[in-house]
Amino acid sequence: AKNDGRNHYRYYSSEMNVNMLERVQLEQRLRQAVIRQEFCLHYQPIVNLDDQKITGVEALIRWQEPKLGIISPDKFIPIAEETGLIEPIGEWVLQQALTDLAHWHSLGFKISMAINVSGRQLLGHDKTSFTCLLKALLQKNNIEPQYLHIEITESMLMDDTEHCMTALESIRSLGLDIYIDDFGTGYSSLSYLKRFPIAVIKIDKSFVDNMLERESDAKLIKAIVMMGQSLELKLVAEGIETHAQWKMLQALGCDYGQGYLFSQPLPAQDLESFLHQQTQS
Ligand code: C2E
Ligand code: CA
Ligand code: CA
Ligand code: CA
Question: Where does the signal peptide begin and end (predicted)?
């Protein structure tokens, strides 16, 4: 560490202690949360950009801590990954999401479900356990595999390439599509897109945010779309908030989209109402 003078150093170190304390407390609460089942899932519609019709949903976890209120996944998923708690949490997510999906299918809404999966979950201690879990849960809920999608980030592909390849190929052989999340924010090389069994690219929200103001972001999106098309991949844009963003993404050739313009992530009940409304209109 730099010698910035005594006061600055002390300030810095006490702030670190606060963060450590907060983290340790959060970790303890997270252990309790797994036992007490304090999680729920919200579902964000993914729509076809041509007609705004819902084709699927992404499951997004929420933690309702009794004292602290709702805690964002950006805050607790990293802790869950480091502590290994992601394995029971991830299993709960899959079970809940597939139970809800089976219910919507039984009502005649044949939508798909995208699940976020972290590296530790995918690779785990036993390479085949995640695939076995997927297979068992699909069977139990009587869901055809093409309705389930797995979202992974591009950095996962780089971290442990060989294991990742084995795991993704076994998932793919079950008939599930694999999505690359937050595309453009990592450091993946284009050859990875071809080597791995990937079906869909999700263009990160950070590019969509500024695409109208910043020409470089619009150009980047255009390049991602063209590359995706030439590799015969589908494209989903994340974080669409305005009509202008929607129209521009559609013009650029992006297939699907998600964002507050179409719908926020919704509790299961509200998603069901959303589905009923869409079929009426
Ligand atoms: P993500 O997978 O990139 O999910 C998209 C995030 O953008 C979600 O945040 C969603 O609520 C938010 N979002 C969607 N549309 C808009 C929009 O138009 N405007 C704005 N401002 N935000 C929008 P959320 O739900 O807080 O999730 C954050 C991250 O936590 C996710 O990013 C994902 O990486 C992780 N996560 C969520 N659920 C799970 C899970 O079940 N398992 C794992 N491993 N990670 C999860
Ligand atoms: Ca995602
Ligand atoms: Ca994303
Ligand atoms: Ca993200």
Answer: none
Span 110-153, pLDDT tens digits:
999 999 999 989 987 676 789 999 999 999 999 999 999 999 99
- Of 116, 210, 262, the one to substitute when testing ligand 1's pocket (max ligand atoms within 8 A of C-beta) is 116
What tokens were used for 280?
Answer: 């009426």
Mean pLDDT for all residues in the chain = 91
Q: Work out the pLDDT band at 2, boundaries 50, 70, 90.
A: very low
> What ipTM describes this predicted complex?
0.98
Pair 61, 93: CB distance under 8 Å: yes
Measure 62 CA to ligand 1 centroid, in angstroms: 10
Per-chain residues with Cβ under 5 A from ion ligand 4: 182
Ligand 4 centroid, distance to 16 Cα (angstroms)? 25
Instruction: Name the pTM for this structure.
Output: 0.93
Q: Ligand 2 mean position to 115 CA, how many Å?
A: 7
Q: What ligand is nearest to the CA atom of residue 182?
A: 3
Ligand nearest to the CA of 72: 1
Q: What are phi and psi of 242, to 5 degrees?
A: -125, 155
- Which ligand has the nearest atom to the CA of 89? 1
Distance from the alpha carbon of residue 204 to the mean position of ligand 2, in angstroms: 9
